[in-house]
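In response to reviewer comment 3 from the previous cycle, which asked for concrete evidence that the modeling workflow produces usable outputs, we include below a single protein chain processed end to end. The sequence was submitted unchanged, and the resulting structure tokens are shown without manual editing.
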Amino acid sequence: MLCCISGERPKKWDLDLPQAEFAYNSMVNRSTGKSPFQIIYTQQPKHTLDLVALPSLPGVTKAGENMAERIQQIHSEVKANLEMANEKYKEDADQHKHKKEFQEGDLVMAYLKKNRITAYEHSASHQCCDKQQLPQNQQQIRHRIKLHMCIEKMIATTKPSNPEETANALQKALNCKGSNCQKQK
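The workflow returned the following structure tokens.
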């Protein structure tokens, strides 16, 4: 918005900040349904035509009496609009999530993230693979699983394991070559 306002004078953008602020505060927000200025001051800001003197009307003093009521009404409308917007955002976000429930004894494929383990553990992790079963009474995505290296780590992601994929991955890991490789029996 500031680029559009300063336009031909990009080096003097700081002189256009008040105009940009006024434009932002006057703009109706999609989530609240009201402008920031209207939420705080219960009315839209005065523009040039609004500042023209109006003839005095007999019911103007009643506006002051109803101001607290208007504020509460606007705040309740904003709250309702925000709740509706948040619910919509939640529904959109939940479409991309898949709830995974595991039962005790389910085989899972565990993926270790580098920031969860030390450099030594990361270099040795491919050498010490073992079938992992879920601990008792844990059905969330994150589980504590005791690794073959006798180190408990928080596993960042788990997924249900296909027995054939697991067998192939374990066979590959168990057939590794090198002096540090420990084969399972």
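The first strand starts at residue 107 and ends at 111. We consider this sufficient to address the reviewer's concern, and the full set will be provided in the supplementary archive.
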